[in-house]
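The following record pairs a protein chain with its ligand, copper (II) ion.
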Amino acid sequence: MNGKILGIVAVVLVVLGGWYVFQGTPAQAPAATTPTPATTTPTTATAPSVTITYTNQGFSPESVTVPSGATVTFVNQSSNKMWVASDPHPTHQGYDGTTRSQHCAAGYTGPAPFDQCSAGDSFSFTFIKIGTWGYHNHGAPSNKGSITVTPPTPI
Ligand SMILES: [Cu+2]
């Protein structure tokens, strides 16, 4: 009787021992993946430059549409003087809210105004604000046009 019990205990010990020895190694965690570094490519296209020519017939093209950040250059090829300025004439506050007497004053420290502030052969202005901005030649305000500024062009 005792021998039979001892036999059973021995078999149980052998089975448990075998299970302990052969249970195998735990599964390895998968290797960590290396994160992809963020790219630094720009998200908007380079803003173009546009030229508007002023002749004795007026501005050409009178009106253009450009993305925000574009620079528009007005070139005088007329036999008259050119003074490009934001509408409305004669106060010129349409683009940035400041009047000609403010933003053309000596010592003005605000952002560059959409106003040539005196006659000259060329005037370049970089448009940031979205909208349609009327302009004119301050010395001949019937010569006019508009710049429509759209959101920056996504790539
Ligand atoms: Cu004016």
